[in-house]
């Protein structure tokens, strides 16, 4: 039994919707649905009844949810014990949100094929969380959104994406080819919370444009901002690839005119520190992989590159 399928079940149960759960986990809806179906096949029981308003858990799902955390912990313990007996060891990597969504499962699969003795564990979270993990020594290498403090980190460019403004398709900005931060003056604007680098970057760009939004609404994941746009209650700042993953007919994504308004992600390690063999193998792999696969990944109409 795969603990990822159990995590998918838990997310759907708590969200009450496959669409919302997929956005929270930064995976596609079909991928999440397949994970739930695999779990239903393993148990031989239906977990959710599908309705027009979302999903409703069955009696079996209610019982499973009450035990799911203990079950995941037990399976993880079994896996760790088996790995230890077989000589396999784990490498933990911290990451700002969205990186694994961008590179896809092939990134992980290709690393595991090259290093079958290393179990790669990537934990995504806020940029603040990533920096805390680096500072504490919990991880030695991480993906961190820029700008990077080169006094604290050695850093290598990994990915760059254009910031876009999601607006309601019926709104006054919907037919614009480009927008600027000055256009946000007086509007309600949703963006990732202050724990993420884009928050600080966009505050700086708003100040440079002398723009004062009516409200800044901090969200913890982009789906919430997109919902506000669809409802007509706010506009939302996000990235081109994130918006494309959540495409909805009520939402139009317009790039910012200034190409410098980008979301830059770096592969980083603590300044001057020598990585162990596994972490160095991952660093070398990640930089080579992104260089050779960039053309196969998401490219928007107005994408920018390093």
UniProtKB/TrEMBL annotation:
HTH lysR-type domain segment(s): 1-58
Under Gene Ontology molecular function, one entry of this record is: DNA-binding transcription factor activity
Which Pfam families does UniProt cross-reference here?
A: HTH_1, LysR_substrate
Q: State any GO CC term.
A: protein-DNA complex
Extract the coiled-coil ranges from the record.
none
* Keyword Transcription regulation found: yes
Q: Which UniProt keywords apply?
A: DNA-binding, Transcription, Transcription regulation
Per the UniProt entry, the signal peptide is: none
Q: What does the sequence similarity comment in the record state about its family?
A: Belongs to the LysR transcriptional regulatory family.
Q: What is this protein called?
A: HTH lysR-type domain-containing protein
Name the species this protein comes from: Eggerthella sinensis
């Amino acid at each position: 039994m795969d603990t990822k399928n159990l995590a998918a079940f838990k997310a759907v149960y708590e969200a009450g919707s496959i669409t919302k759960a997929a956005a929270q986990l930064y995976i596609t809806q079909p991928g999440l649905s397949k994970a739930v179906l695999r779990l239903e096949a393993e148990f031989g029981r239906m977990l959710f009844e599908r309705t027009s308003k979302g999903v409703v858990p069955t009696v079996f799902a209610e019982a499973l949810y009450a035990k799911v955390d203990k079950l995941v912990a037990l399976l993880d313990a079994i896996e760790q014990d088996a790995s230890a007996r077989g000589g396999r060891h784990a490498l933990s990597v911290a990451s700002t949100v969205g990186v694994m969504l961008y590179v896809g499962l092939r990134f992980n699969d290709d690393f595991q094929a090259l290093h079958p003795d290393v179990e790669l564990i990537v934990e995504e979270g806020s940029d603040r969380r990533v920096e805390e993990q680096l500072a504490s020594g919990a991880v030695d290498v991480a993906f961190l959104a820029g700008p990077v403090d080169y006094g604290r980190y050695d850093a290598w460019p990994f990915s760059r994406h254009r910031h876009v403004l999601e607006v309601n398709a019926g709104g006054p900005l919907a037919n614009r080819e480009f927008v600027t931060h000055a256009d946000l003056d007086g509007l309600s604007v949703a963006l990732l919370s202050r724990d993420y680098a884009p928050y600080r970057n966009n505050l700086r760009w708003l100040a440079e444009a002398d723009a004062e939004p009516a409200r800044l609404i901090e969200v913890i994941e982009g789906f919430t901002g997109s919902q506000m746009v669809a409802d007509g209650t706010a506009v939302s700042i996000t990235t081109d690839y994130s918006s494309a993953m959540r495409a909805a007919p009520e939402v139009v994504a317009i790039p910012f005119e200034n190409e410098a308004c980008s979301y830059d992600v770096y592969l980083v390690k603590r300044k001057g520190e020598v990585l162990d063999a596994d972490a160095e193998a991952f660093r070398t792999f990640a930089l080579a992989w992104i260089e050779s696969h960039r053309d196969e990944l998401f490219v928007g109409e107005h994408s920018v590159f390093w």
